[in-house]
Amino acid sequence: MITLKSARELDLMREAGRITALVLASLEKVVVPGVSTLELDELAEEIIRKEGGRPAFKGYPAPEPDIPPFPGSICASINEQVVHGIPGLRRLQNGDIISIDTGVEFEGYFGDAAVTLAVGEVGEVQRNLIAVTKGALQAGINAARPGGRLSDISHAIESYVGLNHLSVVRQFVGHGIGSRMHEEPQVPNFGPSGKGPRLEPGMTLALEPMVNEGTYEVVRGDDGWTVVTADGRLSGHFEHSVAITEGEPVLLTVL
Ligand code: MG
């Protein structure tokens, strides 16, 4: 069931979203060659707790029973890693790209957002992938308006990526968000427009295109969490939590 949020709930989501955005803005400043993803994770957790939030990813149960819960406050996914990279001792190198995804719970409500950043000087392929993935998220946000249907968002994202000759990951999708991090509905980043539930004011969605340089196929790595591109080529990821209103869509994960 899709729940519509009250003004009070939206206020709490805005605060969770503000902390989420603060983490990403703070990490952006320290993403440089030589920093480890564990160092980024520790800074993220420190900021979240200082602001009165709880790191929503930390301890998140794995989809399969024999895999431990997610250990980090961020997902740190480098180069061919698509999503759910586990923070660790690996140090970023000049020319890498890194997607940082984080989620915050504040007084029972959630924010979820991601950015993909260039580490030092990156090549044209990396720059283009980052720009197109960011543009795809914006295309999805622009379609998040009352009167439309859910898959209008999906179609807008896929069309934008297709026009730019890159591919959209199909195996992982966006989602409703609110008093749980993952609520109904699922929001695929592909498909025809005009399908699914009608978009209504009060719906809150985490839109998150994952865009690949090569094939859209992805595989799960040995740690049970990290998802990588099947062909080893690059992947980007941007995400905002968004509220549908009577007018313009409102970004919840902003400062
Ligand atoms: Mg998400």
Question: Would you give an account of this structure?
Answer:
This protein has a single domain, classed as Creatinase/methionine aminopeptidase superfamily (Creatine Amidinohydrolase). Helix content is 28%, strand content 24%. It is built from four helices and 15 strands. Strands 8-7-9-14-15 form a five-stranded antiparallel β-sheet. Strands 1, 2, 4 and 5 form a four-stranded antiparallel β-sheet that branches. A three-stranded antiparallel β-sheet has the order 3-12-11, with no helix packed on it. The longest helix is centred in the first third of the chain and has 24 residues, at 7-30. The relative contact order is 0.19. The mean pLDDT is 97. Magnesium ion binds next to loops.
Secondary structure layout:
Blueprint: H1 7-30, H2 37-50, E1 54-55, E2 74-78, E3 81-83, E4 97-106, E5 109-118, H3 124-142, H4 150-163, E6 167-168, E7 174-176, E8 183-187, E9 204-207, E10 210-212, E11 218-220, E12 227-229, E13 235-237, E14 240-243, E15 250-251
Antiparallel strand pairs: 1-4, 2-4, 3-12, 4-5, 6-10, 7-8, 7-9, 9-14, 10-13, 11-12, 14-15
Helix pairs in contact: 1-2, 3-4
Bound molecules: magnesium ion.
Residues 112, 175, 206, 208, 239 line the site of magnesium ion (MG).
